[in-house]
Specification:
heterodimer; A: about 120 residues; mainly alpha; Helix Hairpins; B: Four Helix Bundle (Hemerythrin (Met), subunit A); disordered C terminus
């Protein structure tokens, strides 16, 4: 005797969040970060925008890892862990450069730092 | 589930926009902390708790504190009634909007949502550690080298080389070294 079809499964699946929601959210964070890095005139805010862009990329990695059908691969998590380490290194060197530039020019206004000559 | 996602996403978007648009830089840094915590909450929701706590530790604990210290060490002129945006801010806004529309078009035109969500993967910290020590050991060592280089490089870039105290110090050191050589 065949079992009756289970009705509960599609109901649960519709409550799940589609992958594209995460991707659109990450795209929004990326574009906000890039607009901030391009628009503000403070050098520190440029670094903040770069951190936001890195976060958006990491969110994409985790979302694609979660929706990956082959569950044995951990490459998404590993990539995010390495990416966070690289972001920490980038932030430390970038903020050291900001402090060095501030000592030299006495300003961190990006519209005034426009010469390559020291 | 969807309500939680909507709340976290709204928090992330509002705080990210705040992080780049406040006039006071300390408010920007605090808003950035809220954004990092929201992204960590999304990692937890996606079944990656290790990445979420690493995000909290590294971003909120280290990067945000670094940014606050950089704000402290550089006296900014943002409090003056000057425009906070640069000379070509319109071009930046247009580029951001164009890129976002292209991304949304590319995401929504593909049938990404037709794939069913697989079962929640069980990834323990032990498995991550075993993977880091076996399959990913070369990237791990490269990362250790990169972090060491970045720390030393940051100190070398930010150190003050030409103040009179340190030169006096180096003079005494040179004298001490000279006396040591003389005794030899």
């Amino acid at each position: 005797m065949p079992r009756p079809p289970v009705r509960l499964k599609p109901l649960i699946e519709t409550k799940m969040i589609p992958l594209s929601y995460y991707l659109i959210l990450a795209a929004l964070i990326f574009c906000v970060g890039m607009a901030g890095a391009l628009m503000r005139r403070n050098l520190i805010l440029t670094l903040v925008g770069i951190e936001l862009m890195l976060n958006a990329a990491n969110l994409n990695f985790i979302a694609f890892w979660r929706y990956n059908p082959s569950a044995a691969s951990h490459a998404g998590i590993m990539f995010v862990i390495f990416s966070i380490a690289i972001a920490a290194a980038e932030a430390s060197v970038g903020l050291a450069l900001v402090i060095s530039i501030y000592r030299h020019y006495k300003t961190i206004n990006l519209d005034k730092i426009d010469s390559l000559k020291g | 589930m969807q309500a939680i996602f909507a709340i976290i996403a709204a928090l992330i978007v509002v705080s990210a926009i705040g992080a780049i648009s406040f006039r006071n830089l300390v408010h920007c840094a605090l808003s950035l902390v809220v954004t990092f915590c929201g992204v960590a909450a999304l990692y937890l929701q996606l079944g990656a708790p290790f990445a979420g706590w690493v995000q909290v530790l590294v971003y909120v604990g280290a990067v945000a504190i670094l940014i606050v210290f950089a704000i402290l060490l550089t006296r900014s002129d943002e409090n003056k009634p000057e425009p906070i945006f640069g000379n070509n801010w319109k071009a930046g806004g247009v580029i951001g909007l164009l890129l976002f529309s292209v991304m949304v078009y590319a995401i929504t035109r593909d049938g990404l949502d037709s794939t069913p969500l697989p079962a929640k993967p069980e990834l323990t910290v032990r498995e991550i550690g075993v993977d880091l020590m076996t399959q990913y050991v070369i990237p791990l060592e490269t990362m250790a080298l990169l972090l060491t280089t970045a720390a030393i490089g940051a100190v070398i870039i930010a150190i003050r080389l030409c103040n009179p105290e340190s030169s006096a110090d180096s003079d005494t050191h040179a004298k001490a070294a000279g006396s040591v050589e003389a005794t030899h």
